[in-house]
Amino acid sequence: MDVLVSLAVNGLATGMLIFLLAAGLTLIFGLMDVLNFAHGGLFIWGAYTGVWAYHMTDSFLLGIGTAIVIGLALGLVTERLIVRPVYGSHVQQILITLGFMLVLQECIKVVFGPDQKVVSPPSYLEGSFVVGDIVFINYRLFIIVIGLVIFFAFYYLFKKTRVGLIVRAGVMNKEMIQSLGINIKLVFMLVFMVGAALAALSGMLHAAYSGVIYAEMGLEFSILAFIVVVIGGMGNFKGSLFAALLVGLTQAFMAYYVPALSLATNMLLMAIVLVFRPQGLFALR
Amino acid sequence: MSDFLELRHMKANIEQYHILHDITFRVPKGEVTVLLGRNGAGKTTTLRSIMGLNPVVGGSLTFKGESIRNLKPHQIANKGIGYVPEDQGIFYDLTVGENMRVAMKKENGETKARMEWILDLFPDLKKFWNKPGGQLSGGQKQMLAISRAYVNDNELLLIDEPSKGLAPIVVEKVMESIHQMKEQTTIVLVEQNFMMASGIGDRFYIIDDGQTVQSGQMNELKQDGVLLQKYLGIS
């Protein structure tokens, strides 16, 4: 029983990290119809710059803040310089964003060096506590809480505020939203920046979760995020949370019981969804 | 009366295709101007071009004396032009209330008063306030689309085929609403249903093959059997 609960907590924490990465991706995908393969690059830049600030100042919160600011800035640069010229062409988007992903990845090695970096959570988030026979690791619970806070914050934003309604309406009908006097390009840019900031935050939180960061982890992690977007449905925040938790839990349990099939199971899950519900489980339409 | 909207020799494309060759018309303030013509003549493209949704490649386009030719759709809308597209443009996953809220540029007393006026005009919208727009009937969607354009203090409404696909009783209701809006705003109406258009319009322009070919007062057109037969197929 204790193993099952530990695996579940582990899976939920991994799922939340994937959710943070996938949430930005699904917004960018759903609202802007942009296949952003550079998303993993924003993830690693968030991880490296956040960890750098954390180590320099010994403040984990400052590390998180730095990752978010770098994510916003890189999101702005990516949208204006890389994505904007290729709106409307998926093939060009895949090529240019994948290329930019590799550039971001190699730049990490140039700026921070090619070696892996070891990271540990701050002292106040380290350690664990026991309930019955079950051990709960503090940092994993912290990630779950952060993921839930962000989910509910965005859920409120999308459901209750006019800004959120505009984003949702923009996903459904871009022409009409412009005809109502709303600058959809500005909305696109802000959504892209927020999506990038979520990816960077996810990278920073993942750094202290996995204990080690390396330049290639962005691409590896973004594959899971794409699986989540496909399963959850493009542009759907709730779908992303559900799918991310499903993928995280599957990953955790399979890694424990049948490690060799860990990624394959998630791929299979995605394939089943694509066959029976290609628009995703929670797709808007 | 002063010309509110003026198009002079406007040319517009849809992708690489040259659709509008020479559209010229004037819309006086406070009137309902009806664009008539057969299917595919270019009426919808004309409205879309005014809104900046199709690129205007030639001619001039002015609103209240100011060129709007090179403006973006949101800039044109913010000049005070409301648009009701042919497909109604309902945000299907948003409720009726949310559709209205997205459209409202301000939430002040004046806008709220307009909203109340709309809900009195279309009680169905109040009844289905929390229902997703995609689940409304065709007539209710049209009412919502018109309401969304009218809720702001727009000085000009562009309404594209409001009677399309609606039952006659619903058409009557929609037309009655446009009649009432006519008292407060200027309207450009695209309409295939001549009976309906002639009951509401003050002046008309006939568009044929991407060009304006005839114009005049609506009362004159009603009497002109030759013109009706030639361009609208009405005998």
Automatic annotation (TrEMBL), chain A:
Chief localisation class: membrane
InterPro entries documented for this protein: ABC_transp_permease, BCAA_transport_permease
Protein name (Swiss-Prot/TrEMBL): Branched-chain amino acid ABC transporter permease
A GO MF term: transmembrane transporter activity
Origin species: Halobacillus salinus
Record's subcellular location: Cell membrane
Keywords annotated in UniProt: Amino-acid transport, Cell membrane, Membrane, Transmembrane, Transmembrane helix, Transport
CDD domains reported for this sequence: TM_PBP1_LivH_like
Example GO BP: amino acid transport
Membrane disposition: Multi-pass membrane protein
Family: Belongs to the binding-protein-dependent transport system permease family. LivHM subfamily.
One Gene Ontology CC term in the entry: plasma membrane
Alphabetized Pfam families for the sequence: BPD_transp_2
UniProtKB/TrEMBL annotation, chain B:
Top-level taxon: Bacteria
Protein name: ABC transporter ATP-binding protein
Domain ABC transporter: 5-234
InterPro entries to which the protein is assigned, alphabetical: AAA+_ATPase, ABC_transporter-like_ATP-bd, ABC_transporter-like_CS, BCAA_Transport_ATP-bd_LivF, P-loop_NTPase
GO biological process: L-amino acid transport
Naturally occurring in which organism (per UniProt): Halobacillus salinus
Origin organism lineage: Bacteria, Bacillati, Bacillota, Bacilli, Bacillales
Keyword Secreted: no
Record's keyword annotation contains Calcium: no
Entry's family note: Belongs to the ABC transporter superfamily.
GO terms, molecular function: ATP binding; ATP hydrolysis activity; branched-chain amino acid transmembrane transporter activity
Pfam families on file: ABC_tran
